[in-house]
Amino acid sequence: PPTGPLVGRRVVVTAGGTREPIDPVRFIGNRSSGKMGTSIAEACARRGARVDLVTTASGLPVPPGVRALHVDTALEMREAVRGLTADADAIVKAAAVADFRPASYHDQKLKKEADGLAEVVLTRNPDILAELGRERGPEGPLLVGFAAETDLEEERGREKLHDKGIDLIVINRVDMADAGFGVDTNRALLLTAQGGRTEVPLTTKSRLAEVLCNELEHLLAERDRG
Ligand code: PMT
């Protein structure tokens, strides 16, 4: 049986970049590999939590003790996360969700010239995290967001924390070769709704996941005390 400080907790983690299909061969996507989210799922499971990983990263191994649900699009990710919300103690949204998707899907491959591929009309995707923040009651799960930024600008991070109604935001750099998308390392600043602030200089994504788990344990314990 699992042991560790997160035994009895259920954690939902999202990882990877959503892919929004245009036709059977093309999609709009982003450069998220799923490494950050998968590291967080692994760290939570190692501490004894029951972990559901909602991920677009089909190529990454699923860590021991983690249940993976594979999705492609933002709408699929939203459905999967919503289905797990009622039982969750914490939801960690490390995924890079496409803000827009093509307004219509063509089930035949579009022809370069004839089908107007040069102009793809987009429509807004729902903000999964902001929805969770709006809809949760007092018994609802702890909500953790990530922010992909080109600096660790604190003020904007605090704004996102409050606008989305979440408990913790991890601002990470995506403009440096050793942080953000794709690589095994990261640089981050963690801000909590209660004013907590933890800077994490260059480190591995696994180590950043451990720092995040420490923070999660602390926030969950605080919430238990009311
Ligand atoms: O996967 P890797 O290659 O390891 O890279 C990791 C990462 C850089 C992708 C990751 O650490 C990260 O920063 N993820 C969040 C990227 C992002 O989408 O940031 P954002 O500022 O657009 O979104 C803020 C938060 O809202 C995120 O928690 C996001 O999951 C959530 N969101 C955003 C849009 C949307 N429609 N729905 C959401 O839930």
From TrEMBL:
Residues 11-226 are annotated as: Phosphopantothenate--cysteine ligase. CTP binds at D99, K109, P126, D127, I128, L129, F146, K160, K164. It comes from the Bacteria. Coiled coil: none annotated. Residues 6-217 form the DNA/pantothenate metabolism flavoprotein C-terminal domain. In the C-terminal section; belongs to the PPC synthetase family. In the N-terminal section; belongs to the HFCD (homo-oligomeric flavin containing Cys decarboxylase) superfamily. Catalyzes two sequential steps in the biosynthesis of coenzyme A. In the first step cysteine is conjugated to 4'-phosphopantothenate to form 4-phosphopantothenoylcysteine. In the second step the latter compound is decarboxylated to form 4'-phosphopantotheine. This is Coenzyme A biosynthesis bifunctional protein CoaBC. It comes from Egibacter rhizosphaerae. The chain holds residues 208 to 433 of 456 of the full protein.
